[in-house]
Specification:
The protein has 270 residues and is α+β, with helices and mostly antiparallel strands. The chain has one domain. It has 3 helices and 6 strands, in the order H-H-E-E-E-E-H-E-E. Strands 1, 2, 3, 4, 5 and 6 form a 6-stranded antiparallel β-sheet that branches. A hairpin with a 4-residue loop joins strand 1 and strand 2. Helix 1 runs antiparallel to helix 2.
Length: 270
């Protein structure tokens, strides 16, 4: 008698499903994670653009900006119109009705408010327990060391100066923490730190990188750069995702807007 071998099709289907279902879930979860991350990036980009646009037509530091009586050139946070004395939570800081004269803070406030409700910036702690950023320098932007990306908004202002005689161009970065006397003159930011809203990050944009993209045939100009740093926690945090995609996901977006008020101007001939 011939023996007939029987196989279970249902058991084979369950086995295939058990093998491929986790892979399918990982694929779908990855697609959703990438979509949500890209959506947050667009939100960061739009917020940075709004912050840059809010100061594009302003005078960075008008004459009479409040300074400390004992230390001329140092902004006075005690006075109501000074730079860090006003909270920017909940109300748009527009040019016409803003309660702070510091354009760096105006840009940061408008950027932060336009991040909501999708993104909320958090105060993060470094490994040493400090929430403050590392010391900024021209060679260190705090974006390559462990725990480097921390939530922050960085505002920088630049001015170009074309030297026709030598066919060269210089690019100067200004600090938002000090001014010279009551003239409203900005101080050079030699550390390339940028103005930090949460004091957790330094600028990731080098002056040399921007300078390499400028043309010596262009006229003098000024512009503002608004950067947003955000550590985005993974939505699903599937096992094994951390080996491929870091959790949280470090994100960085920026926008560049013209700022006519700080354009370099020719020195009048006496």
């Amino acid at each position: 008698m011939q023996r007939v071998q029987m196989t279970s099709q249902r058991g084979q289907s369950f086995m295939e499903l058990a093998i491929f279902l986790p892979i399918l879930f990982l694929m779908l979860g990855g697609m959703v994670e990438i979509t949500l991350t890209f959506n947050d990036y667009l939100q960061m980009l739009d917020a940075a653009r709004y912050g840059g646009r809010s100061i594009a037509d302003t005078n960075p530091y008008p004459i009479g900006f409040p300074t400390q009586a004992a230390s001329p050139g140092v902004l006075d946070p005690i006075q109501s119109s000074a730079y860090d004395s006003i909270s920017c939570d909940g109300v748009l800081v527009v040019t016409e009705t803003r309660t702070t004269l510091n354009p760096f803070r105006v840009a940061a406030c408008n950027t932060k408010i336009n991040l909501n409700p999708l993104i909320t910036l958090k105060t993060s702690n470094r490994a040493d327990g400090s929430s403050s950023r590392n010391v900024c320098s021209a060679s260190n932007t705090n974006t390559t060391s462990p725990n480097a990306y921390r939530d922050d908004i960085i505002v920088s202002m630049f001015a170009t100066n074309v030297i026709t005689a030598t066919s060269t161009i210089t690019l100067t970065r200004f600090s938002g923490n000090t001014i010279v006397g009551s003239t409203g003159q900005l101080v050079v930011d030699s550390t390339e730190s940028g103005w930090s809203y949460m004091n957790q990050m330094c600028s990731a944009i080098k002056t040399s990188d921007l300078l390499s993209k400028l043309l010596v045939t262009a006229p003098n100009t000024g512009f503002a750069v608004v950067e947003v740093f955000y550590n985005r926690p993974q939505t699903f945090d599937f096992p094994g995702f951390g080996d491929v995609i870091p959790n949280p996901i470090p994100m960085h977006a920026y926008a560049i807007f013209p700022l006519v008020a700080i354009e370099a101007t020719s020195t009048p001939t006496p």
